[in-house]
Amino acid sequence: MTTRTVFFLSDRTGITVDVFGNSLLSQFDGIDFHRVYIPYLDSDEKLDDAIRRIEEAAEVEHQPPLVFSTLVQGQLRERLRHSSCRVYDLFDSFIGSMEKELGQQSAHAMGRTHGIGNLDQYERRVESMSFTLSYDDGARLTNLERADVILLGVSRSGKTPTCLYLSLHYGTFAANYPLTPDDLDHGGLPRVLLPHKHLLFGLSIVPERLAKIREARRPGSRYASLESCRREVRQAEELYQREAIPVVNSSSLSIEEIASAVMHRMNLMRHS
Question: Rounded distance, CA 153 to CA 232, Å?
Fold first, then answer.
């Protein structure tokens, strides 16, 4: 397998360049990308060190490393372009044409992408995260009408990480309820959820994957047995169908993809 070194450079946290670069790299199979992340490049001295590392990688591999950059300062970007690398600059690609279209110069200010920005939106994210933590895994069952969505699913089907992502990235008040074997044997919706049926969204999962996840948590247990997983998943899917609850299979999806599906299918508004 071909190996290629890839640098991710940013003058702030590096969140944007991480998403930007890895989205592009995901389209190329058969290459082992060695990723190097260097955030907070906000001075000539720090860039000197980053360029030194880039030059060393180029010399060792006999080919220029790929460099994804969201550096804002023009002088730093210009110096980077003259080093031994292939630069893919998010701002170079888009800012110029946007300035022309909008008829004004951009601010060229660092750290705006993930700043607090709109205070109301920031406070909404904080409040939604607090709500989600309080209503995780059925820990709290009062005032569920405050939720924007309530995720249902058997244990270890991805409810908690999806809810956390929804609250942190979208400002969504996301609760979740675990469908236990007793709930599933009963056959209907748990009584506490009946008034909130319009808020329910189901997660399913391939039984074999569920068994593998549970086995890592409780090795050799009945909880992790393939037989138990198959029965619980089947009963959960029958419940979703009987109650007309929208559902997505989480087996091969990332948390981001599951969350996006929930937002779309439930027609939820983004608050962040």
Answer: 9
Decide which of 3.40.50, 1.25.10, 1.20.1250, 2.60.120 is the CATH code for 2-102. 3.40.50
Contact of 205 with 233, CB cutoff 8 Å:
yes
Q: What is the pLDDT of residues 114-139, one digit of tens each?
A: 454 556 777 887 898 899 999 998 88
The residues, any chain, with a CB within 8 Å of residue 78's CB and separated by 6 or more, are: none
Integer angstrom CA distances of residue 226 from 51, 178, 236, 266: 52, 19, 15, 31
The three-state secondary structure class of 173 is coil
Is-contact 77 71, C-beta < 8 A?
A: yes
Contact indicator for 9, 51 with CB cutoff of 8 Å: no
Q: Which two tokens stand for residue 224?
A: 């992790």
| CATH of span 119-265 | 3.40.50
- Inter-CA distances, 87 with 7, 59, 108, Å: 9, 17, 19
**Where is pLDDT greater, at 9 or 11?**
9
Average pLDDT over residues 164-177: 93
**Domain boundaries in the chain?**
2-102, 119-265
Across 4-22, b (16+ Cβ under 10 Å) vs e yields: bbbbbbbbbebebbbebbe
| CA dist., res. 162 & res. 166, Å (int) | 6
Phi-psi region of 158 (alpha: psi -120 to 50; beta: other; left: phi over 0): left
Report how far apart, in Å, the C-alpha atoms of 211 and of each of 25, 62, 138, 237, 254 are: 31, 45, 22, 17, 18
Burial 108-134 (b: 16+ CB within 10 A, else e): eebeeeeeeeeeeeeebbeebbebbee
